[in-house]
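As a warm-up, study this chain.
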Amino acid sequence: MITFLLALSFVPFQASTANQQFDCKWDDKALPCEMKTTTAHYTIAVYNKCKEGTEYTCRDYVYTSVDQKGRRFTLQHGRMAYRVCPYDNITPCEQQGWVFRNGNTEYLVRYPTGTLEVRQGDKLLLREEAISVEP
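Now compare it with the structure written out below.
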């Protein structure tokens, strides 16, 4: 069983130049980068703004992606997705990725594969496998 914990917040597209380097920094702050993944059309970074020891319950993960045209898209207040342990069906056992929402659209960055999945309800809108993944 996979439990998805979701939160809402959205920062709209911000135009940027195609020559802009995308690295694992967010707003020039020194935030821990949980994962940077590159798919066929996006480079995605997931940042951890959580206090140490609260990773499974925290809602302060940030998703930033840059498409091939250099447009940046940011979602805040994401949560970790995880599999619960079979012995009590409560305790987090295995991280599955991070989940972010924008209205009724859900973005899932899978861990450790870096696969990006975008869904609206039960409908899969996009699934892109990672070309590269940096932990």
